[in-house]
Design a protein that fits this description.
alpha/beta; Rossmann fold; 4-stranded mixed sheet
């Protein structure tokens, strides 16, 4: 979503500074003023012969990146699985895709990624497996400190995603904030803090001057 003009100006000023902070942590980082620019850049960063997969992401839906990939690249799309067993197999194969695309639940201004995961497949791909990972995040996910990023992931992203999946069995789906629960349905099983990109450049972060995802 396009932000109000004063917010857009702030994003355009802050974005390049966060890019510099990410670069200092060995990420390949970019700032795009608009979602359309970000989608175009993401496609350019992915070689045509790459097999591509992705983590479930509202940001990807909003930018139309999945449809771009399916029309131009070989893809592993778990939503096309015929049953639960095939879906599990596709999620495993995605860990060895050439390019994995995802968003991030939060990013601190000094360039640290924070992600929360239920099954762990998205976090696992971020850490190790695919040749490259492309992280696309709206500037609404950038917060001041690491503590703020963890809080955002737990109290903003996680409850909103539970509501998106229409899961009503956790406290956050009722109260709108983390209840530190141990529910089998919790999507907060894995907390991953990525403070450095290793090897350098494997994770490519595209910050977008729009409000995308949760």
């Amino acid at each position: 979503m396009k932000p109000a003009e004063p917010v857009q100006k702030r994003y355009d000023l802050l974005g390049p500074r966060v890019v510099k902070a990410l670069s200092n942590r060995h990420f390949e980082a970019h700032y795009c003023h608009s979602g359309a620019e970000a989608a175009e850049l993401a496609e350019k960063l992915i070689p045509e012969d790459h097999t591509v997969s992705w983590g479930g992401s509202k940001t990807m839906e909003e930018l139309g990146i999945i449809s771009r990939m399916k029309s131009s690249r070989k893809c592993i799309d778990r939503s096309e699985a015929a049953d639960a067993d095939e879906k599990k197999d596709m999620m495993r194969r995605a860990l060895l895709s050439d390019t994995f695309i995802m968003s991030s639940n939060a990013i601190s201004e000094d360039g640290i990624l924070v992600n929360i995961d239920g099954n762990g497949n998205r976090a696992a791909a971020l850490i190790y497996g695919p040749e490259q990972v492309i992280v696309i995040a709206g500037m609404n996910k950038v917060v001041k400190t690491l503590d703020d990023a963890v809080s955002r992931a737990r109290n903003t992203a996680a409850p909103a995603n539970m509501m998106r999946f229409d899961i009503t069995s956790t406290p956050c789906s009722v109260t709108g904030e983390c209840g530190n629960c141990k529910s089998p349905d919790s999507i907060c099983a894995q907390f991953v803090i990525t403070r450095l990109c290793n090897p350098a450049g494997r994770i490519k972060v595209i910050l977008v001057g729009e409000e995308l995802g949760f």
